[in-house]
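TL;DR need structure tokens for one chain.
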Amino acid sequence: MIRMLNWLVAGGIATISCMLIAQVFFRYVLNSSLSWTEEVGTFLLIWVGVLGVASGLRSEDFIAFTLFRRSRIAAVRLLCTIISWPSTIAFSGLIAFYGWNLSFDRAYGPVSAAASIPLAWIYAIFPIGGVLIAALSIARFVRELSGKAQQTSGVDSGKDI
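>> reply
TL;DR here they are.
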């Protein structure tokens, strides 16, 4: 699943790059600007950002307070785990809940101005991303509590961010 997320993020970034190159070409070479590229690029950037967070959770590729995460005192490491992962799970649950409400409130409503994309499709990333982030966070939390994450975590293995 993480490999698929990585490919989706990479594909989204490549698509955004191609659209921006096309926009510059059309605007400055052909003197005819494309009206939809900026808007679609912004929407893709939202999707890429949320999916990138979900992808990064698996390998824990985020800024961390390594002073506490690498502490030699087991109680400090456990406290970090007990505070950080449930907080992440709760926050992603809020994102999923309010994203669900937002996307379905607009399910048959407005469309984007330039690309005529229903805004519900754009907002759909929030419940999708919230559920993905919560599921991956729960899995990571369970692994850390069971002690299995120490061998695979970038933070605990000496990899500096």
